[in-house]
Amino acid sequence: MSEADSDGTDVRRAVVLDYLAHGLSDDGRPQYEKSPAGYALEIDDFQLYQVAFDEDERLTIGSEVVVEPADERDVVTECSRVEYEDLSSGAKSELEYVVADVVEENEERFVDFYNDAQPITLRLHQLNLLPGIGKKLRNGILDERKRKPFESFEELSERVSGLHDPDDILVERILEELRDDDLKYQTFVGRHEEQGRTQ
């Protein structure tokens, strides 16, 4: 999660998806000039980053690093946003596991999506953007949350008939948004940014 530091800066953390000790393959500099590099997924709004690491630090996939602001970074020396297509094959194969971990570790935040999701248009609800959620399941979720907000994924499964693995459904949607940047509605990827623009 991002947290505001004492001076009010928003610290944004990311999880390392791939660590390339010898730098990026398309970096044309001689080997001795390359710094370790890799790819990371930002925890709050799932932005993807290409990062260069401090060569004195040994990192593993799954490590958490600070990507923004620059003066808060400890092991990251440079970073820039990238698209899904730009990721290494290693980063692409780790992505699903890292997204699943983020959803699991921030259960309350993602259960609240089910509690707080709103209509987008007269005919389309945010819940309908989730894979496998049609009118019947959507109505089941809406009816149950009116009675009492959901507090866990387990409770969602128990109270809403036919809703299995509500956490996996979210992971699937987040991956879909990461892989296809032409989706009309982005529910999870880049939300932080949009809120920043609209405030």
UniProtKB/TrEMBL annotation:
InterPro entries: DUF655, NA-bd_OB-fold. SUPFAM superfamilies: AF1531-like. It comes from the Archaea. It holds the Pfam family DUF655. This is DUF655 domain-containing protein. It comes from Natrarchaeobius chitinivorans. The lineage of its organism: Archaea, Methanobacteriati, Methanobacteriota, Stenosarchaea group, Halobacteria.
